[in-house]
Amino acid sequence: MRSSLPVVVLSAFLFILFAGHAGAEPNAVENIERQIRIKAEQGDASAQTDLGVMYASGNGVIQDDKQAAFWFRKAAEQGYAKSQLILGLMYNEGQGGVAQDYSQAVSLFRKAAEQGLATAQYNLGVMYARGEGVTQDNEQAVAWYRKAAEQGEAIAQNNLGAMYANGEGVAQDEKQAAIWYRKAAEQGLPTAQNNLGAMYVKGEGVVQNDKQAAEWYCKAAEQGDAEAQNNLGVMYANGKGVAQDEKQAVFWFRKAADQNEAMAQLNLGQMYFNGTGVPQDYAQAYIWTDLAAAQGLEKAVKARDSLANVLTPAQIEEGQKLVREWVATHP
After folding, report:
1. What is the extent of the structural domain holding 163?
2. Which end of the chain has less Cβ packing within 10 Å, N or C?
3. Where is the signal peptide (predicted)?
């Protein structure tokens, strides 16, 4: 089960802010930019933030990271929480014309978090959990995750669930973990859906139920979550929670394997080795097992070494060539 999610990515947050102007006609965008700039130059923090977003995205103006940072900083210095968050993300990632500085990121996240901005509260929790820019402190991480989670921030709900599941910064409580995973899962967060599925498989915090597990894995897998795709493949392979279907197992293992999910690569390799759901193919078995082994998966290393005993040197050489080709097309 994955424990938690990282800090919100700057580009994703800017995309959400930019969406409000997306699709506007060029003349309309130009007019919007003019009006925003007038207000920004008059000291309107909201307009300064909007102008920063326009420079960051290149919408209505020539894209310019330094100008974006300039306007975000103007608004942040006025105490505008949204710009404090954005500027914090810039420092966290070392993007947008500023050097990476975790301490500055924490300072800005805290300013926005103390104003109640849920995404900033979540990010501050992540910084405490990781010990980046601040002394590592799981109890503080839990406190900030909780503030954001109680405002409905799905990623914070997932991470709070993970803290309860792992007993980090709070007494271990599988029921509380399941409660918070469910809140995030019901908002469509694939990581939480996968985590909740795992709780149902193990009967941790919920009554064990393979059917429910498969349903949650499926929701996450259909959104492209690689770990959930592998987990759903396992359910199909074993006939747990779904009718056994080896071809469906291969389908989902392949989806995850193509995303470089090591366990899925090993599982797909084993399907090829056994001729389960696909025609038996030792070369394909070697390719997928070797890819998993290259990621340090111990079971895959042993399986690859066993495979080497049944393949000819020519088959191994061909397999290694195909592995190199796969790696070259999957950066």
Report:
1. 153-259
2. C
3. 1-24
* Cα separation, 125 vs 12, whole angstroms: 19
Q: Which of 128, 151, 174 is the last residue of a domain?
A: 151
Does a structural domain hold residue 21?
no
pLDDT at 126 exceeding the cut of 90: yes
Q: Which of 180, 175, 123, 127 is nearest to 149 (CA)?
A: 180
User: Which among 107, 133, 151 is the end of a domain?
Assistant: 151
CATH number reported for the structural domain that contains residue 147 in this entry: 1.25.40.10
- Long-range Cβ pairs for the range 131-140 (8 Å, 24+): 132/92, 132/102, 132/105, 132/106, 133/101, 133/102, 133/103, 133/104, 133/105, 133/106, 133/107, 134/102, 134/103, 134/106, 137/169, 138/163, 138/168, 138/169, 138/170, 139/169, 139/170, 140/169
Residue 21: pLDDT over 70: no
Is 60:52 a contact under the CB 8 Å cutoff? no
